[in-house]
Amino acid sequence: MSNFVNGFSKKKKLEKIDWIISNHFHNNKKAKDILFSYLNDDKSIQNLHDEFIENTITNFYLPFAVAPNFLINNKYYTVPMAIEESSIVAAASKTAKFWSKLGGFKTEVLSAEKVGQIHFFYNGPFKKIESFFRKIKKDIIKDLNPITSNMEKRGGGISSLELIDMSEKINCYYQIFAKFNTIDSMGANFINSCLEKVTEVFKFYIEEKKFLDGSSEKINFLMSILSNYTPNCLVRASVNCKVDDLEKNNGGLKDKKFIQNFIDAVKISKVDTFRAVTHNKGIMNGIDSVVIATGNDFRSVEAGIHSYASKDGNYSGLSDAYVKNDIFYFDLTIPLSLGTVGGLTKLHPLVSWAHDLLGNPSANELMQIISAVGLAQNFAALKSLVTTGIQKGHMKMHLLNILNQLGANQIQKIRAVEYFKAKNVSYKNVREFLNKG
Ligand code: MEV
Predict the structure, then answer these.
(1) Interatomic CA distance for residues 297 and 400, integer angstroms
(2) Residue that is last in its domain, among 373, 388, 403
(3) Is 394 a catalytic residue?
């Protein structure tokens, strides 16, 4: 049977499910039951989920957890985290508690600028279009008013609109490079609407003022879209403490060896891409969990942060660690473009609950919370790596997953958790434990 289908999107949800189960699962009942087991009994929630995206056939759950005791700028937060990987939440919680006793995390938003671009081709002289653009820029901005006025009332809007000559990179290629402040919204829709309007208005003036030299000049507006690279939407999180305070909690290493190892691990992330990517992945474990729990766009956050990690020409670790005057410093600076209004923030009941849990922070405050979680996660990973190794703690947290994979019952799970407190967790050891009865 061919699995090609016409008009799939027009089918009702149940028809879609039937088509899939019959075409891909030979009408297997279990395959259908799995889809139904993830549907929500609350019709209003299910309807919401059905309408978030297209062709919805069921829901995809991630565990939703919290990490308490995050002391950030002298305020305690209980942080929501949605993530599938075991040990991340435990590491965040443990590190939050640890640093809360040493003054907690200090964070600050360094800048909050968002970017959008209009890419176009023009085969005439740059000077000509530059002077034309300069003349009509004020009118363009005025014509944007219906879109920007609300954002301006909230203190945001377009902060600049510049024409950029890119023709050295690609022949005839130019950009209108726009900067925005979108206050508490991530701003993707706002920015894209503004850019498309700028394009429309720019085209209008080109026609109206007969800008093109009839016979030979041509202009082609290719695309208008925000950029997810936001190197000027930056937040910094840091911790510091006396060297002795950290050495007391050093995982067993003696004579200031812990701090030296820790700093060396950070140094390696600055020079070796293989290590840098994993180092940053550990940071993203914390960042993505909170970004997802708060209904933000984790793909844009990922793309933006990883590109920032390459800003100096080489992909490198995002955090820094050093000792100065017997004080240990550890910090992280990242771009974070987030929203606390719009998008899913009010629409998705659990996301909205997560914002309530955090005290309904502004986008600036959420940037700070998330950067602190990223730093905490990086601290936890490096601490394990340079002391006990990652597997000891990770496998302990992974024990329940292994037990579930092996079909253990509740009593076996309780016994196993007790037994493995003092033993190495591995798939083989857990299987042997269960076989022994
Ligand atoms: C695992 O999810 C993350 C780590 O690999 C991060 C790191 O190596 O720094 C432990």
Answers:
(1) 30
(2) 388
(3) yes
* 110 Cβ neighbours under 8 A, 6+ residues apart: 234, 235, 236, 333
Catalytic residue check, 24: no
Is residue 140 in contact with ligand 1, taking CB distance under 6 Å?
no
CA dist list (Å): 137 to 116, 134, 205, 272, 342? 16, 5, 10, 45, 29
Picking from 208, 227, 246, the residue at the C-terminal end of a domain is 227
The H or E element that residue 315 is part of is none
Q: Is the CB of 279 under 6 A from ligand 1?
A: yes
Q: Which residue has the higher pLDDT, 395 or 27?
A: 27
Count Cα atoms within 13 angstroms, Cβ side, for 181. 13
Are residues 287 and 417 located together in one domain of the fold?
no
Query: Mean of the pLDDT values across residues 182-200?
Result: 96
Residue 1 within a domain: no
Residue 395 pLDDT > 90: no
Q: Give the percent of the chain with pLDDT over 70.
A: 98
Whose alpha carbon is nearest atom 4 of ligand 1? Answer: 282
Q: Is 12 a catalytic residue?
A: no
278 lines ligand 1 (CB under 6 A): yes
What would the pLDDT profile of 113-138 be if each residue is shown by its tens digit?
999 999 999 999 999 999 999 999 99
Average the pLDDT over 245-269 and give the result. 84
1 pLDDT above the threshold of 60: no
Q: How many domains does the chain have?
A: 4
297 part of the active site: yes
Q: Are residues 370 and 297 part of one domain?
A: yes
Pocket probe for ligand 1: among 88, 262, 281, 395, the residue whose CB has the most ligand atoms within 8 Å is 281
Based on the fold, state whether residues 87 and 155 are members of the same structural domain: no
Ligand 1 atom showing the smallest separation from residue 282 Cα:
6
* pLDDT for the residue numbered 422: 85
Which residue out of 18, 85, 130, 272 is catalytically annotated? 85
